[in-house]
């Protein structure tokens, strides 16, 4: 019986050893494969985070560019309708001279003169007439409020007007004015 046990025990031990070796060989690639997969998942996640950060930075850059374009467009609109000249500039002809002698800029800043268009659409500086025109400064900060604060006066906004020395989108139209309000009759 001893011989039989030795005979059986030898191959069983051999099979067990072969089985263990096969298990090690089969399991080793699986462990390496799992590590490799984890590394790839981490790499993919990092790429997604990087792409999101890049997209956010691009969106912010586009937003800033749009704000710049909007600001430039607003500046053109302002200069088209209400030219931005310095109201504090000194009048070159002073208030003692005739309105006809005033420069366009001086006329626009004057409370006793009014820049208007003649029949030939040429700009002329004339003496303000009537309660609505007298005291009205065409280039004041709030010309509408200044005009309509007087009884029976109505503000007429500039229509494609561009004063000398200012770059505008359009020009040649009427400057702002303060006129007597038309009353309706029943």
Report the span from N to C terminus: 137 Å
Whole-angstrom Rg:
44 Å
Q: Tell me the number of strands.
A: 4
Chain oligomer state: single chain
Query: Which percent range fits the helix content?
Result: 40-55%
Main beta sheet, described?
A: 2 strands, antiparallel
| Overall pLDDT level | 76
Order of helices and strands: HHEEHHEE
β-sheet strand percentage: 5-15%
Spans of at least 5 consecutive residues with low confidence: 77-94
Strand order of the largest sheet: 1-2
Number of helices: 4
Structure class: mainly alpha
Silhouette: rod-shaped
Short description:
The chain is mainly alpha-helical and 186 residues long. The protein has helices at 2-81, 104-109, 130-133, 143-148, and strands at 113-117, 123-127, 153-156, 177-180.
Descriptive report:
This protein is 52% helix and 10% strand. The strands form 2 sheets. It has a two-stranded antiparallel ribbon. A two-stranded antiparallel ribbon has the order 3-4. The protein starts with a helix and ends in a 6-residue tail after the last strand. The chain contains 4 helices and 4 strands, in the order ααββααββ. The model is unreliable at 77-94 (pLDDT under 50). β1 (113-117) and β2 (123-127) form a beta hairpin. The protein is rod-shaped and about 125 Å long. By secondary structure, it is mainly alpha-helical.
């Amino acid at each position: 019986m001893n011989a039989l046990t030795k005979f059986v025990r030898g191959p069983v031990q051999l099979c067990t050893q072969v089985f263990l070796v096969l298990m090690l060989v089969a399991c080793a690639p699986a462990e390496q494969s799992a590590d490799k997969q984890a590394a790839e998942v981490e790499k993919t996640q990092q790429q997604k985070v990087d792409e999101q950060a890049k997209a956010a930075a691009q969106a912010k850059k586009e937003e800033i560019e749009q704000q710049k374009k909007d600001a430039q467009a607003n500046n053109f609109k302002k200069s088209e309708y209400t030219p931005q000249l310095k109201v504090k500039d000194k009048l070159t002809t002073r208030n003692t001279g005739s309105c006809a002698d005033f420069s366009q800029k001086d006329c626009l800043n004057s409370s006793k003169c009014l820049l208007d268009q003649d029949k030939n659409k040429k700009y002329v500086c004339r003496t303000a007439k009537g309660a609505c025109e007298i005291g009205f400064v065409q280039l004041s900060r709030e010309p509408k409020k200044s005009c309509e604060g007087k009884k029976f006066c109505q503000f007429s906004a500039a229509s494609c007007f561009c004063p000398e020395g200012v770059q505008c989108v359009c020009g040649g139209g009427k400057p702002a004015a303060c006129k007597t309000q038309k009353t309706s009759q029943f």
